[in-house]
Amino acid sequence: MPLQVSPAPAPALRSVLAALGSPAARGVHTPALRSVQGPLSPELPLPVHVLDVRDAPSAAGSGSVRPTRAGVPRTRLAGWRFHIRSGDRPVAAADTLPTPDGGWSVSQFFEGPYLASTERALRQAESMATRYQPRLLSVPELYMLTLWLHGNAEADPAGGVPAPTDLLVPLAPAPPGIAPHLPYRVADLLPVMTLRLAPPPLLESTA
């Protein structure tokens, strides 16, 4: 069933187009972009959400996932990511961030394994029976990026939290012990991430 890809904010798309068309910006592009001949187009915009963790210690331990109702983690929108294509081939990605004046700007162009793994995960999701809204969910403390398949395909892509029945598809490279490209229900993967985010217990002194 087709994914419901949400349109990115128009200023974010304009910032990517401007950067791609700027000779100065092209000078700092990735090698893949510098070597491409012909037009480049930003496509497949995905909102990038970040999993928030506590700043202060709690009974669950410093660094544990900050829960909302029913133990659902709190997330925040960090930006939008575009895949940059040359013809039908993805060659790089562009991250955009909101600016203090209410606009958007390109923070980086990059290539690497997450580009290919995102495309692979999206192809996987296209073959599923359920219609999802695709997003990206980043867990910086675990150096982990997942394709977040949100069950409410019509939801505002900038808001909301992962529902227990939403799916998370870890992208390669994934942390040790978490299989990449295997869809996990949020209710199943969240406890694993919570455990890894919690610090080890302190050992009592026997002196």
Give an account of the 3D structure:
By secondary structure, the chain is α+β, with helices and mostly antiparallel strands. The chain has one domain. The protein contains five helices and eight strands. It has an eight-stranded mixed sheet with strand order 4-3-2-1-5-6-7-8, with helices on both faces. Strand 5 and strand 6 form a beta hairpin.
Please outline what is shown here.
The protein has 207 residues and is α+β, with helices and mostly antiparallel strands.
Which stretches are low in confidence, meaning pLDDT under 50 for 5 or more residues running?
Answer: 54-70
Please write the string of helix (H) and strand (E) elements: HHHEEEEHEEEEH
Mean pLDDT, rounded to whole units? 84
How many domains, as an integer?
1
Radius of gyration: 19 Å
Report the strand count: 8
For the sheet with most strands, the description reads: 8 strands, mixed
Structural classification: alpha+beta
Q: Name the beta content range.
A: 25-35%
Helix amount: 10-25%
- Please work out how many helical segments DSSP would assign: 5
Strand order of the largest sheet: 4-3-2-1-5-6-7-8
**Straight-line distance between termini:** 63 Å
Broad shape: globular
